[in-house]
């Protein structure tokens, strides 16, 4: 006998109750098992993560990035495992088919339920109207506003990122220490980004949100893992190396696009991808750390950067799929992704004891706390500028601004932290950015040709 049949049988035995009262009275047969299941699994996995963390000395965990990644991933299981089991339970029991969902049931439906098709059409129409409203603004001022906002936000973010992960902190007692916990930086960045996007949603108009919240978990997990790899890689490679790798991430994006979305690419896209690969090889082989201020690119650094590119490529492709399927706004996407990023990293840090240790480091070295706040502020405002630029001017203008920012970031890092680049390495950098601008030019030219062909066929 199903849970629905059982509750209805109890209803028939009590003739004094109407159907709605009866369903509400016996809804406990639905909600108690699910809530107990979630809470039990959460604490069970939390105890497992604590046991694994205690099984290794702290010094050993800090010395090996792969071990730190494994411990953090087990911490993420405190959210992922109960969520997966709850998803299976809801589907197996038909929990969301009820029409009398209480407060707990509505929360479950928000997280796991698919939207009504009529609401999806309403969301699409409201999204298009919002785009039309934005496109009527003054372009020249907005372009300058976006350019300055993106450059300032991410140039300062890059300088602070390298400072936090590579420089020693000194306090008034003349004590010095390096901060080593990359996951805490991911956490504070996501907390402020979630707060910014939440405030933005409250005070601005957006289409109705229809995406089940659990679908944000996939890109949220890869987003925090890619950010973790990005911070961790700075312990093994220079910041210019990292920036150049990020500029070349179109290669794994194309590969992931083939796998996730079955996309097809033009010939010039493959040619420019090969050019970027050649430029990367030229840079890495000749920037070998023999000069002052240059850190050697180790195997660990290469692996971490490869993981970063793979995770980041999946994130962008999965977000693209969600945009096309549910027509949410960019700020809604930002809020949803950062919500789960805060939950995953917060629980993981708490289970490892890093959360309180990092706050203790912050009180011991006040300059670190200020750097963390500015880093998070730049990251959050930078995300808002990204979404505003793409929605107003499109991806081509955004890529041009970002490419210029990456060139400036390399120059700024070399000037501040005295990184020396060999002549061959500089030539490799030039090849990468020439390929990027060539790709932008070909994209725009192909788009114009297709528009002309469309006009001629219509005429």
From TrEMBL:
Predominant localisation class: membrane
Swiss-Prot/TrEMBL keywords: Membrane, Transmembrane, Transmembrane helix, Transport
InterPro entries assigned to the protein according to its UniProt record, in alphabetical order: SCL35B1-4/HUT1
GO CC aspect terms: endoplasmic reticulum membrane; Golgi membrane
Membrane spanning stretches: 28-48, 64-87, 143-160, 184-203, 267-285, 335-356, 424-442
Domain of life: Eukaryota
Mode of membrane association: Multi-pass membrane protein
GO function terms (MF aspect): 3'-phosphoadenosine 5'-phosphosulfate transmembrane transporter activity
Location in the cell: Membrane
PANTHER family: ADENOSINE 3'-PHOSPHO 5'-PHOSPHOSULFATE TRANSPORTER 1, SOLUTE CARRIER FAMILY 35 MEMBER B
Similarity field: Belongs to the nucleotide-sugar transporter family. SLC35B subfamily.
Protein name: Adenosine 3'-phospho 5'-phosphosulfate transporter 1
Organism: Thrips palmi
């Amino acid at each position: 006998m199903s849970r629905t049949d059982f509750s209805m049988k109890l209803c028939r035995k009590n003739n004094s109750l109407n159907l709605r009262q009866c369903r509400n009275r016996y809804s406990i047969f639905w909600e108690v098992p699910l809530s107990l299941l979630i809470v039990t699994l959460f604490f069970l996995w939390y105890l497992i993560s604590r046991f694994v963390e205690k099984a290794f000395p702290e010094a050993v965990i800090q010395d090996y990035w792969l071990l730190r990644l494994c411990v953090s991933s087990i911490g993420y299981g405190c959210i992922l495992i109960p969520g997966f089991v709850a998803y299976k339970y809801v589907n197996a029991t038909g929990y969301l088919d009820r029409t009398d969902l209480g407060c707990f049931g509505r929360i479950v439906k928000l997280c796991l339920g698919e939207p009504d098709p009529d609401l999806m059409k309403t969301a699409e129409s409201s999204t298009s109207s919002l785009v039309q409203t934005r496109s009527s603004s003054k372009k020249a001022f907005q372009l300058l506003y976006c350019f300055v906002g993106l450059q300032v936000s991410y140039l300062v973010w890059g300088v602070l990122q390298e400072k936090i992960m590579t420089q020693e902190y000194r306090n008034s007692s003349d004590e010095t220490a390096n901060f080593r916990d990359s996951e805490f930086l991911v956490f504070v960045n996501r907390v402020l980004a979630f707060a910014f996007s939440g405030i933005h949603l409250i005070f601005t108009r957006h289409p109705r949100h229809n995406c089940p919240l659990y679908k944000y978990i996939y890109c949220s997990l890869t987003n925090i893992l890619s950010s973790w790899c990005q911070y961790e890689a700075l312990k093994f490679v220079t910041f210019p190396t990292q920036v150049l790798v990020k500029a070349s991430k179109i290669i794994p994006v194309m590969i992931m696009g083939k796998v996730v979305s079955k996309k097809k690419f033009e010939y010039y896209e493959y040619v420019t991808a090969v050019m970027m690969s050649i430029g990367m090889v030229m840079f890495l082989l000749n920037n070998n750390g023999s000069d002052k201020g240059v850190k050697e690119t180790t195997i660990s650094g290469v692996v971490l950067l490869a993981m970063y590119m793979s995770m980041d490529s999946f994130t962008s492709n999965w977000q693209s799929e969600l945009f096309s399927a549910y027509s949410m706004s960019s700020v809604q996407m930002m809020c949803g992704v950062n919500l789960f990023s805060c939950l995953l990293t917060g629980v993981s840090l708490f289970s490892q004891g890093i959360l309180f240790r990092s706050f203790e480091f912050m009180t011991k070295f006040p300059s670190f706390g200020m750097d963390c706040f500015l880093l998070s502020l730049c990251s959050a405002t930078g995300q808002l500028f990204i979404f505003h630029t793409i929605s107003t001017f499109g991806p081509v203008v955004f890529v041009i601004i970002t490419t210029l920012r990456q060139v400036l970031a390399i120059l700024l890092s070399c000037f501040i932290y005295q990184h020396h680049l060999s002549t061959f390495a500089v030539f490799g950098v030039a090849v990468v950015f020439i390929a990027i601008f060539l790709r932008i030019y070909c994209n725009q030219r192909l788009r114009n040709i297709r528009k002309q062909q469309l006009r001629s066929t219509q005429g």
